Protein: Lysozyme
Amino acid sequence: MALTVSLLDKLIDSDPTTREEKDFPVSQQHMLNGLLRDLESMLNSRIGWKNIHEDFLEVRYSILNYGLPDFSSMPYSSQDGQSQLCDIVYEAIREFEPRLRNPHVQISDEKNAIDRTLRLEISATCLIDNDIHELKFNSEVEPVNLGMKLSRAK
Structure:
């Protein structure tokens, strides 16, 4: 799927005094900012604890499963916990962000003895104007509320 303006961007009316609809497409940077916003929102959404019966395949891929499970009790200071967190983030991106292809999630190699913030590197490809672009994002797991801050890697 090519990168397009998200539904949220289409619904936002930045100038409610004007009755004319603005044309799409918008700039490539605007679309990338929208993608970053949508991805960060998804990674900060939490799904419920109820297990969905395996016979209900469509429900597994519905809004009921949008986001990440609560990982506050996950031992993400261990190698296994970090690997599990990467897998969870990968699955969420694969299932709910069709604008990104071939996602890859790994723990950042950037270590600091004082700062114990867990950092993830997310990379994927995206089709923009019929060209495939490699996108890289840095994510920080906030230690207090376990929210994720996302930024584009430089």
In short: DSSP finds four helices and four strands in the chain. The chain has a mean pLDDT of 81.
